[in-house]
């Protein structure tokens, strides 16, 4: 099971990176097109979709690797027992919030599909297509938070916290 989770987070991060490459290629095509007198239709729209996809698909991987910004100056001053309680409470709150966001994003994709909503560009794109990576990224983050919450409930240290402690030791 652990290998599946690790592959999910890594795959999510790799897809985010591919979206950034796609943005670069779209902008490059648009620049070259201007030099030769043609336009790339809806390049801005597709770059925006790729930006949203890269942002949300990268959330779970970044969370697992300890890349999200946290107030470590305050957290590291807690005793080990109170730090575990604080981590548990924050993860429980985050899990509740991200569960709602996951539901809302998935429902948004469903409604866009149901009502055949399309974008307003040169190329009309069904909106459920660019919304799907956003929902997948939020659901992956929700699973990563659930994984960390279960780890804390077992009395262990979550991955992101280990990375923060390693960084704090390197600064000293």
UniProtKB/TrEMBL annotation:
<keyword id="KW-1133">Transmembrane helix</keyword>
<dbReference type="GO" id="GO:0015740">
    <property type="term" value="P:C4-dicarboxylate transport"/>
</dbReference>
<dbReference type="InterPro" id="IPR055348">
    <property type="entry name" value="DctQ"/>
</dbReference>
<keyword id="KW-0812">Transmembrane</keyword>
<feature type="transmembrane region" description="Helical">
    <location>
        <begin position="89"/>
        <end position="110"/>
    </location>
</feature>
<comment type="subunit">
    <text>The complex comprises the extracytoplasmic solute receptor protein and the two transmembrane proteins.</text>
</comment>
<comment type="function">
    <text>Part of the tripartite ATP-independent periplasmic (TRAP) transport system.</text>
</comment>
<feature type="domain" description="Tripartite ATP-independent periplasmic transporters DctQ component">
    <location>
        <begin position="23"/>
        <end position="154"/>
    </location>
</feature>
<keyword id="KW-0997">Cell inner membrane</keyword>
<dbReference type="Pfam" id="PF04290">
    <property type="entry name" value="DctQ"/>
</dbReference>
<protein>
    <recommendedName>
        <fullName>TRAP transporter small permease protein</fullName>
    </recommendedName>
</protein>
<keyword id="KW-1003">Cell membrane</keyword>
<dbReference type="InterPro" id="IPR007387">
    <property type="entry name" value="TRAP_DctQ"/>
</dbReference>
<keyword id="KW-0472">Membrane</keyword>
<feature type="transmembrane region" description="Helical">
    <location>
        <begin position="12"/>
        <end position="40"/>
    </location>
</feature>
<feature type="transmembrane region" description="Helical">
    <location>
        <begin position="46"/>
        <end position="63"/>
    </location>
</feature>
<dbReference type="GO" id="GO:0005886">
    <property type="term" value="C:plasma membrane"/>
</dbReference>
<keyword id="KW-0813">Transport</keyword>
<feature type="transmembrane region" description="Helical">
    <location>
        <begin position="134"/>
        <end position="153"/>
    </location>
</feature>
<comment type="similarity">
    <text>Belongs to the TRAP transporter small permease family.</text>
</comment>
<dbReference type="GO" id="GO:0022857">
    <property type="term" value="F:transmembrane transporter activity"/>
</dbReference>
């Amino acid at each position: 099971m652990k290998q599946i989770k690790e592959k999910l987070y890594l795959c999510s991060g790799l897809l985010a990176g591919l979206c950034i490459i796609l943005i670069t290629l779209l902008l490059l095509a648009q620049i070259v097109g201007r030099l030769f007198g043609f336009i790339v239709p809806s390049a801005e729209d597709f770059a925006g979709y790729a930006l949203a996809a890269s942002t949300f698909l990268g959330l779970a991987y970044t969370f697992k690797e300890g890349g999200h910004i946290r107030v470590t100056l305050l957290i590291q001053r807690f005793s080990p027992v109170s730090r575990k309680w604080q981590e548990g409470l924050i993860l429980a709150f985050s899990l509740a919030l991200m569960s709602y966001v996951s539901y809302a994003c998935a429902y948004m994709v469903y409604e866009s599909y149901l009502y055949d909503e399309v974008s307003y560009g040169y190329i009309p794109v069904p909106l459920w297509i660019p919304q799907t990576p956003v929902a997948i990224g939020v659901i992956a983050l929700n699973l990563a938070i659930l994984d960390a919450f279960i780890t804390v409930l077992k009395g262990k240290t979550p991955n992101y916290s280990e990375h923060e402690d390693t960084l704090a030791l390197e600064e000293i």
